[in-house]
Structures are given as C-alpha cells and as structure tokens.
C-alpha cells in the first residue's frame, strides 16, 4: 500500500469519526434544566382509564412512555383536553389531530387524536389547565381517546426525541416497571387546580338603569359540574339547577321593573363551588309623570327671571331632568336640558312665549311635552 493511500485512509477515518461525533450531538436528547410540573390533561373531576400503557403496541419507540386514556363513562369524543403545563403551541398536525406544546428547556408535551383544536396559531400561549382541543379519533378511527406523551428533544424539537416516565401533580406517579402495557387499566382523575370562575357580559352595566330588555350572559371556566342562578338571593348550594352547564343567561325583564342583583353559583367537576353576582342593575320602562296646571305670568321687557314648575315623579329610576322649550310656538320642542325643575330666563323682547317641559328619567324613558306656563313680555313695566 502506498504512502498516499495510507494517508487517504487515515483522513477518511478521521472524517468519519468527526461526523459520528457531530451526529451524536445532533441526535442526543437536549438536557432539561427542570421539567415542568404536569397536571393530567383530562377534564377535572372526571375518571379516565389508561387503555394502553407504556411499552406496548404502538408505544414502543421513542414514545415508549406514552399513555392512551379514555373516559370511564364515555363517550370521550369531544371531551375538553387541557394543557398539562404552561407552554406555547409549537406544532399542529391535522391528519393525526396532534398538538405539541413547547415548555422551554427543550421539553415538550404531545396531545394526539384530537377531533379539533382551539387554535392552530404557532406560538399561542396556553396557561396550565387551559383547554387546547377536544378528544377524538383522528389518525386512529373507531376508538376516541387521547394519546399523551411528554418528551425531551434536541434544539430543533424533532431529532433526539425521548419520552419520559410520567408523574402528575394529582399524585399519580407512573414509573418504568417493566413489561408490556405498564399501568394499563389505572384510573386517573384530574384536579381542578382552582375554583370555578364566572365571567359576565352584558350591555347593561352594574349600577345602571335601562329601559331595554338587555340580556346578561355568563360563562364558567374551571367548571363543568353545572350552575344555578337567581335574582336577589343566593342559589342553594346543595346541587346545580343545570347539571353540566358551562354557560347561561338572564334577562332584565325576568323580574319585571325594579332594581335587582343576579347571583350565579357554579360547580366544578370535582365539586368545588363559586358564587358570583352581577349588579345591581335596574329595569324601568315606565316614563316619568309630570302633574302640572298651566299658569300665566307677565314680565317687563329686558328683565331676567327664574321660572319654576312642579317636579316630575318617577318611583323607579328617578328623574334625570327636563327638556325645555321657550318660544312663541304652542307646540314647540327643543333639546335644551335642565336637571332641576327651574330655569333662568334671559331678558326677552316683548311678545308672548310658552314654556314647555318634557321629563326624562334615568333609564331614558321620556314623558310628554306639556306647557307649564305662558309668559307675556310687555314693552314697559
């Protein structure tokens, strides 16, 4: 063998060694400084069974430590699936219904066979427990279930993937125990993490009066156990009026005219309760009433004066003020507004004027225009 051939052989060996070292770094699972604490990705308070555990069937590659889970009481399909830890949406694959969340430090969680996602926006941030999609059978038709995996990977998120044995904050520790279908048949129940939260939405804002029958909508997060509602009293705590409901509504007209507070009691799937209230808010469709007998007065020209009239009556929302007209037209109207039943009249030219008034209440109801006084302005005192 020539010296040239020997050198070439050494160079090829060295190059091969260098490539092997580089591939080792590329494919090696990236070290995780601290894996996040995981919660079960299933709805809180519901029992789910592991129908396929570790190291069996399709769980025999990089995703050895995966779980297939389904509702104990069915049907699993369209059950909300939540983020096992806070993270951002890193990948969505429609064919298999797979969402992958990135949690930092090269740690990922994967949720597969979803019927539909909440969003497919890459980088969308989920808090722990946020619903990210709904269970289904995409990629595995026939048996709706959730395939869940937590894993580490290299910097690119794909190479060097390595699943990790699962441990959940609910107290479930699922280590490697050897054999096929490890932990199969185990029943897992997720915790709520927090009490139900009730969110209200309405055009009718608290402390306001309204003459339109607005709707008050409410929805519950961290709920699912049901809800109850009542006006001006707390709903009983012994059980929900609407089991399993996540949202509802009430209308201002439910109790007729008046000043009311809406109470909503929400249940989580684990029995936690929250009592929330909205209001008080007022409903008033009756116009204010003005009882007046028209009067007459005579004034000298170029003299200011204060004119008054009886206060209007509105037993619900109260009187907000009065539209006024002062002029020669017996049917005149204007946008002039005064809060009190009195007005300072500037000096007027000689002539005959009518003062007309229309009361308005705090809900926006208006009474009729009425002439309260005729004013005759003379040329001389």
From TrEMBL:
InterPro entries: Cell_wall_metabolism_enzyme, Dup_hybrid_motif, FN3_dom, FN3_sf, Ig-like_fold, M23ase_b-sheet_dom. GO terms for molecular function: metalloendopeptidase activity. Residues 77-152 form the M23ase beta-sheet core domain. This is Peptidase M23. Pfam families: Peptidase_M23 (PF01551). The lineage of its organism: Bacteria, Bacillati, Chloroflexota, Chloroflexia, Chloroflexales.
């Amino acid at each position: 063998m020539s010296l040239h051939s020997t050198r070439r052989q050494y160079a090829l060996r060295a190059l091969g060694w260098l490539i092997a070292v580089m591939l080792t770094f590329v494919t090696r699972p990236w070290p995780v400084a601290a894996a996040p604490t995981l919660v079960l990705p299933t709805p809180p308070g519901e029992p789910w069974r592991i129908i396929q555990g570790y190291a069996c069937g399709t769980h025999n590659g990089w995703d050895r430590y995966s779980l297939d889970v389904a509702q104990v009481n069915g049907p699993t399909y369209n059950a909300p699936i939540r983020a096992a830890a806070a993270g951002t949406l890193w990948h969505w694959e429609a064919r298999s219904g797979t969402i992958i969340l990135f949690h930092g430090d090269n740690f990922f969680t994967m949720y597969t066979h979803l019927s539909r996602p909440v969003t497919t926006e890459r980088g969308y941030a989920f808090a722990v427990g946020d619903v990210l999609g709904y269970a289904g059978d995409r990629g595995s038709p026939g048996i709706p279930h959730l395939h869940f995996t937590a894993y580490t990977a290299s910097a690119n998120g794909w190479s060097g993937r390595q699943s990790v044995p699962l441990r959940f904050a609910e107290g479930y520790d699922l280590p490697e125990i050897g054999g096929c279908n490890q932990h199969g048949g185990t029943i897992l129940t997720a915790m709520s993490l927090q009490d139900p939260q009730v969110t209200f939405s309405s055009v009718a804002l608290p402390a306001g009066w309204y003459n339109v029958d607005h709707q008050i909508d409410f929805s519950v997060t961290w709920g699912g156990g049901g809800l109850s509602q009542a006006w001006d009293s707390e709903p009983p705590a012994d059980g929900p009026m609407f089991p399993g409901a996540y949202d509802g509504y009430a209308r201002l007209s439910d109790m007729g005219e008046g000043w009311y507070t809406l109470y909503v009691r929400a249940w989580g799937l684990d029995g936690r309760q929250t009592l929330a209230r909205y209001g008080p808010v007022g409903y008033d469709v009756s116009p204010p009433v003005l009882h007046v007998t028209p009067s007459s007065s005579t004034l000298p020209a170029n003299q200011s004066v204060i004119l008054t009239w009886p206060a209007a009556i509105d037993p619900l929302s109260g009187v907000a003020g009065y539209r006024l007209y002062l002029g020669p037209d017996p049917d005149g109207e204007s946008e002039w507004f005064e809060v009190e039943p009195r007005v300072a009249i500037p000096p007027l030219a000689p002539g005959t004027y009518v003062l007309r008034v229309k009361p308005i209440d705090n809900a926006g109801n208006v009474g009729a225009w009425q002439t309260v006084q005729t004013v005759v302005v003379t040329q001389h005192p």
